[in-house]
C-alpha cells in the first residue's frame, strides 16, 4: 500500500483503504478498481491523498533503472488518454503524445 497525491491517480489503480466522507459514509470500498469516472469523483470530493495498492514485485519490470508496470497495452493507452484529456487540440501536446506512444511501443517490443 502507498498513499499518492490525487493528481497522480489513474484509471486501473486499486484502492487500498475505503474512502469515507466526514459523516462516516463509505464512498468507495477497499479494492475498488478506479475508472476515469471514479478518479473524477474522488477529485470532486476534495480528497488530497488516497491509499492505493502497490504493484506486486512480479508484476514489474525494470527498464533503465525504473520500475515499470507490466500492464496490457490497452490499459496503458487508456491511462495515456486520461493524462492528456485536458490538452485539447494543442499541436504540441499531440506531438508529445505521439512521441510517448512511439517510445512505449519500442519499450514493449524490447522488454515485453
Structural summary, described in words:
The chain is an alpha+beta fold and 112 residues long. It has 2 domains: 2-52, Molybdopterin biosynthesis moea protein, domain 2, CATH 3.90.105; 57-111, no CATH class. It has 3 helices and 6 strands. It has helices spanning 36-45, 73-83, 91-111, and strands at 2-5, 19-20, 26-28, 49-52, 60-63, 66-69. The chain has a two-stranded antiparallel sheet. A two-stranded antiparallel ribbon has the order 2-3. Strands 5-6 form a two-stranded antiparallel ribbon. The two termini are 26 Å apart. The model is unreliable at 56-67 (pLDDT under 50).
Please tag this protein with its features.
two-stranded antiparallel ribbon; 2 domains; alpha+beta; 112 residues; Molybdopterin biosynthesis moea protein, domain 2; 19% strand; 38% helix
Q: End-to-end distance, in Å? A: 26 Å
Strand pairing plus helix content: what structural class?
A: alpha+beta
Strand content: 15-25%
Please, what is the oligomeric state?
single chain
Rg calculated over all Cα atoms: 16 Å
Q: What global shape is seen?
A: elongated
With strands numbered from the N-terminus, the spatial order across the biggest sheet is 1-4
Number of domains: 2
Individual helix count: 3
Q: Tell me how many strands there are.
A: 6
Give the ordered list of helices and strands. EEEHEEEHH
Mean pLDDT: 80
